[in-house]
Amino acid sequence: MPSENKKYDNNGPLYEKRRRFYEHDAHLKKKAVAEGHSVKISGSEVILYRGVSSTNTVIKELASSGLADRSIVWSQYQSQGRGRMRRKWDNSKPGRGLLFSMLIREAGLEARYAPLYTLFTAAVLAEAVRAETGLQAGIKWPNDMVAGGRKLCGILSESSLYGNKINYLVIGIGLNVNQKAGDFPLEIRDTSTSLHRETGRYVSRVRLLKTFLRTWARQTERLQENGWPYILEIWKKYEITLGREIKVISEERQLTGRAVDIGATGELILETPDGNHIKCLAEDISLGKYYYGKGG
Ligand code: BTN
Fold first, then answer.
1. Whose CA is nearest to atom 7 of ligand 1?
2. pTM above 0.85, yes or no
3. Is residue 135 scored above 90 in pLDDT?
4. Does CATH place domain 14-238 in 3.30.930.10?
5. According to CATH, what is the number of the domain 245-292?
6. Which terminal residue of the chain has fewer beta carbons within 10 Å of its beta carbon, N or C?
């Protein structure tokens, strides 16, 4: 069960004071968070906004004007945050979550490798969250981060392609950091969590981003040394899906079975009750009643 810290569980000034104190950082001072102000964090250009429609949309617009690899658009708030499977991402009470998109310039890479980047991002995030907070966050295939059976983070990757090659990738991350239960919309309150809800502590979003970027750089070096199978290796270190009975949910089909493995380009291999192995790629899964997800 999540360790909700009742002492701070209100919307009062004490919560705000402690949160602001803990998050005190030059990058986030009111003046610094001007629209489009840019700062360097762990070698990446980070462009800060108070509010945008969606950080993925903004970074795509900036990508065409020569934004460098690993640049980031971070916003305190999104009015039209987007999620996977055409869902909206609507838990962005200003300043509580870490909402950002990263540009990955991988020109020439075959498009079929794009899903692997999303798995890589989930593994890097899990590693960074564990290092920064000690929370044993796990990955639900393909790239949701969960803790205490609830959703902690979602990742939405989008790619700009020419033919079957990648021009660039945009990786959008919505990590719930300092939200309290009441900060989430009612529909997702029971199925969502935050680092604050799980640990009872305020967590600095700037520190998290720094740790994420450093972990990304270190793991990218290892990826270059070891090749694509390395992504599956680190993803497996943090995943909580394989070996479980799951439901696969998409517009086209609903399947149940056991998640037995993950394929070379990130697809989930499902073993159905009659022993067949089926590949799932752009779908969602439910891990049962203790995990969020429809029909769980
Ligand atoms: C999901 O779980 O469905 C993915 C959610 C991804 C949300 C993030 S928030 C930052 C970036 N901008 C968006 O519009 N979406 C992603």
1. 174
2. yes
3. yes
4. yes
5. 2.30.30.100
6. N
Minimal-distance CA residue to ligand 1 atom 16: 172
Kindly report, residue by residue over 234-243, the tens digit of the pLDDT: 999 999 999 9
Residue 158 in this model has a pLDDT that exceeds 60: yes
Q: Is residue 79 within 8 Å of 174, Cβ to Cβ?
A: no
Q: How far is the CA of 227 from the centre of ligand 1 (A)?
A: 27
What number does the ligand 1 atom closest to the CA of 54 have? 14
> Above 70 in pLDDT, residue 291?
no
Q: What is the pLDDT of residues 1-34, one digit of tens each?
A: 334 444 434 445 555 555 555 555 555 655 555 6
Please state the atom number of ligand 1 nearest to the C-alpha of residue 154.
2
User: What average pLDDT score do residues 173-191 get?
Assistant: 92
Residues within a 6 A CB radius of ligand 1: 54-56, 78, 81-84, 87, 89, 99, 101, 144, 154-156, 172-174
- Expressed in angstroms and rounded, the spacing between residue 228 Cα and the centre of ligand 1 is 25
Domain ranges of the chain: 14-238, 245-292
